[in-house]
Write a structure and sequence with these properties.
The structure is a homodimer.
Chain A lengths: L5 E7 L3 H11 L9 E3 L4 E6 L11 E7 L5 H8 L4 E9 L2 H10 L4 E7 L5 E5 L9 E5 L6
Parallel strand pairs in A: 1-4, 5-8
Antiparallel strand pairs in A: 1-5, 2-3, 3-4, 6-7, 7-8
InterPro entries (chains A, B): Glyas_Bleomycin-R_OHBP_Dase, MeMalonyl-CoA_epimerase, MMCE/EMCE_epimerase, VOC_core
Keywords (chains A, B): Metal-binding
Family (chains A, B): Belongs to the methylmalonyl-CoA epimerase family.
């Protein structure tokens, strides 16, 4: 495969509300999107844009807060109560082709492609097969960029 | 302050040589810079470019391997033997102004500004004050972008 755009860095937080204040007041973010629930994944998410020279398409920060019943993010927060860097997400043109390529390389794809926070199919690859980085692969939104 | 460009994501690795193979062969990176030692920080580093629609200025991945005698990255790798996400780095126009602003907000700046991997002054801010994210602040290279 060919390396795709670094769409976002997933950052777990115990409170998206508090993180929004942090990114606005401390870091000076000016484009913070509306938080929303992603019940299929058991999380609430909120995207923070980072600037680029062109103004286009900076890598986003995806704030992630566990919804009740979530175990994976809740477990991460037990180990990292203040929150922290959780995953890195790259875009691909075709999610099924990407899944087949990772699997052909012996990488553990975690489940079938499902709709992610940007409304396109995503999957995760096991961090132990990816240099310790939990890696999300997402299909580029049609018409994006 | 105003949120600056997300310059890079620091990713610790036990072997930059192995990580270069991973980013080239598995992730399909096409622009991998020459690794070099940064002895003042006790690390070897290597930048991997990620693509953007304009071809300009994607957020980089900074691979970081400890040099002998390094304790901070070596300690991180003891807890995360495969490596993993280590820090996030944002650009600012003036490193001393940024340091004063973080300190005025009660954030623990770790040491005085020093020359970082891109040849401009940098400092780190304590992750416990930054939502669990070890945060590097770097002055934008003059004439860059």
């Amino acid at each position: 495969m060919k390396l795709g755009r670094l769409n976002h860095i997933g950052v777990a937080t115990p409170s998206i509300a508090d993180s929004i204040v942090f990114y606005r007041e401390v870091m000076g973010a000016t484009k913070i999107h509306e938080p929303f629930d992603l019940p299929e994944q058991g999380v609430k998410v909120c995207f923070v844009d980072t600037p680029t020279d062109t103004g286009l398409n900076g890598t986003q920060i995806e704030l992630i807060e566990p919804l009740p019943g979530n175990t994976s993010i809740a477990g991460f927060l037990e180990k990292n109560p203040a929150g922290g860097q959780h995953h890195m997400c790259y875009e691909v043109p075709d999610i099924h082709a990407a899944k087949a390529e990772f699997e052909a390389m012996g990488k553990r794809v975690l489940g079938e492609p499902r709709i992610g926070a940007h409304g396109t199919p995503i999957f995760f690859v096991h961090p132990k097969d990816m240099g310790g980085v939990l890696t999300e692969i997402m299909e580029t939104p049609k018409g994006a960029h």
